[in-house]
Amino acid sequence: MKEFLLAFIGSFTGAILFNIERYNLFWAGLCGGFAWIIYKALFEYSSRGIYATFLAAIFVGLYSEIMARRLKTPAYVFSIPGMYPLVPGIMAFDTITLLVFGKLEKGINKGIETAATAGAIAFGILLASNIYQILDKLICENFKSETKK
């Protein structure tokens, strides 16, 4: 519960920085809180950070698209603050620290892991958004064709 609340606050305050409307702040915070819970649960289950980040990012993408339709606002209003808890900031810090102190092999490995985690976030949100839009278009076309009959 504590981690959910902290992730919620992080996403909520990040949404404030982007000057998001007040009635969307709660929903943006909720996106980040749930994304963090999904990440933690999957990480504890599989011990694979990139995999857990990817699936949590898929959740962020789907949540963003659904809430964008319901609240009639752009999806990025929810996806950008929602991914804040997933961003590998401490991993990037560790990468630079290792490189500065001359531990090149460990630093390069950590850098690759950091880049892969960032890529998993981007690809997860992109994949979820595209799949949602394709399914939405197919459902709308099927609905239109059935109503013409």
Task: Give the structure's gist in a few sentences.
With 149 residues, the chain is an all-alpha fold.
Please describe what this structure looks like:
The protein is mainly alpha-helical and 149 residues long. It has one domain (2-148). 87% of the residues lie in helices and 0% in strands. It has 6 helices and no strands. The chain has helices at residues 2-17, 22-46, 49-71, 76-83, 89-100, 104-148. Helix 2 runs antiparallel to helix 3 (49-71). The longest helix is centred in the C-terminal third of the chain and has 45 residues, at 104-148. The chain starts with a helix and ends with a helix. The model has no long low-confidence stretch (mean pLDDT 92). This is Threonine/Serine exporter ThrE domain-containing protein. Residues 4-129 form the Threonine/Serine exporter ThrE domain. Pfam families: ThrE_2. Keywords: Cell inner membrane, Cell membrane, Membrane, Transmembrane, Transmembrane helix. InterPro entries: ThrE_2 (IPR024528), ThrE_Dicarb/AminoAcid_Exp (IPR050539).
